[in-house]
Amino acid sequence: MTESGTYDYLLIGGGIVGVSTALQLKQRYPAARILLFEKESTVACHQTGHNSGVIHAGVYYEPGSLKARFCREGAQATVDFCKRHKIPFQRCGKLLVATSPIEVERMAALADRCRRNQIEVEPLSAMQLKSIEPNITGQGALLVPATGIVDYRQVAAALQEDFIALGGQVRFSSTVTALREDVATIEVCCGSSRFRGRFLISCAGLMADRILTLLGIEADFRIVPFRGEYYQLPQSCNDIVSHLIYPIPDPDLPFLGVHLTRMIDGSVTVGPNAVVGWMREGYGRVNISLRDSWENLSYPGFWKVMHTHLRSGLHEMKNSLWKPGYLQQVRKYCPQLGLNDLRPYPAGIRAQAVKADGSLVHDFLFAESPRSLHVCNAPSPAATSALPIGTYICDKVEGRQR
Fold first, then answer.
1. Going by C-beta distance under 8 Å and a sequence separation of 6 or more, which residues neighbour residue 363?
2. Eight-state DSSP code of residue 117
3. Disulfide-capable partner of 38 in 14, 194, 336, 377 (CB 3.0 to 4.6 Å)?
4. Is the distance from CB of 373 to CB of 393 less than 8 angstroms?
């Protein structure tokens, strides 16, 4: 059925960043007609609904960066939102565990970064670590009490409900097939349906570069998907840890390593690793899309990333295919776990913006046209940071209209 309509603001993407932005735009402009497009049948179907549910404190991020600022503000904003909406959450704290002398050295740099980012941190000796986590082994650790856990699907659903309650509209099962912009308006096409608005905001995540292409904006990056594969521990292991357990990350690598995560439902997951994805929305064990694979293989930046991180990439691929290798990553700090403890669990996909020179975009990235604003890269911790990101986007939109 052909539909049409005229709106003040149109938004693309029903992930947590998209619904946060839609809600805050409606709160800022109560009389505005606002329509959000989501190609799935509900919100939070992709990155938002396939992450580990951590409310990050902001340990790793460069002081002064948008990531550091958004994470610090977002952690508290997320907790406040959950309290108002009676969404279950816990501030269980995170332990970053050092298992080698070089990781002990790296602890000092991480502790300093925490302090510069105004995050409470407590260095622990091996004995202190063992006293609070008897099942975890390490030469030392950093305790970050502010880290928490939540189900971000519930958070996104509550944001959507608030948006609709204020008069906002959401159009599900609506894949954007074309975009047209003129001097006065911008048009969004979903098949034969046409919708016009004064301004468009795209929070398209895994499809961010393709939305830019629809509008004829030249992108200086491409989204390369990385699969994060998880396992879940059996119910008998639900009490194996009381904190989130992370390794000390290698600063030369872009991912944090395999960790033990207490989930808000009481279960414990192991992961994720990081392997190249050959399907942008492939969450099963074997997922290949010819289009997505070709876009990887035909992009110079992809090959440069692979060359730069060849050794770690091969290591991740081996562990993806060989379960004992994956197990070794977690046994470094939790040696009592065995192969039978690693049970199947859905994978996640991370939308990583990669420049043509092979550099990974580590901070937030935006693109613009006269009547549109595009969130091109919203890296972890985007879920934690969704509320301040939404505020930032609304501020940018307001500034464009002055």
1. 62, 65, 66, 67, 377, 379
2. T
3. 14
4. yes
Identify the pLDDT of residue 254: 62
Domains identified in the chain and CATH numbers: 1-90+149-220+356-402 (3.50.50.60), 91-148+226-350 (3.30.9.10)
Two tokens at 35?
A: 């329509």
CA dist 385 and 16 (Å) reads 9
At residue 50, what are phi and psi to the nearest 5 degrees? Answer: -130, 35
The C-alpha angle 178, 182, 186, rounded to 5 degrees, equals 50
What would the two tokens of residue 7 be?
Answer: 């709106």
Q: Answer for the pair 290, 298: CB distance below 8 angstroms, yes or no.
A: no
Q: Residues with Cβ < 8 Å from 162, sequence gap 6 or more?
A: 23
Q: In what order do the strands lie in the sheet with 94-98?
A: 122-125, 140-144, 94-98, 244-247, 259-262, 268-271, 231-232, 343-344
Q: CA 205 to CA 379: how far, in whole Å? A: 9
pLDDT over 70 (residue 1): no
| Coil vs helix vs strand at 225 | strand
- 78-101 per-position pLDDT tens digit: 999 999 999 999 999 999 999 999
Global pTM reads: 0.94
Note the residue count of the chain: 402
Structure tokens at 355: 């420049």
* pLDDT band per the 50, 70, 90 thresholds, residue 378: confident
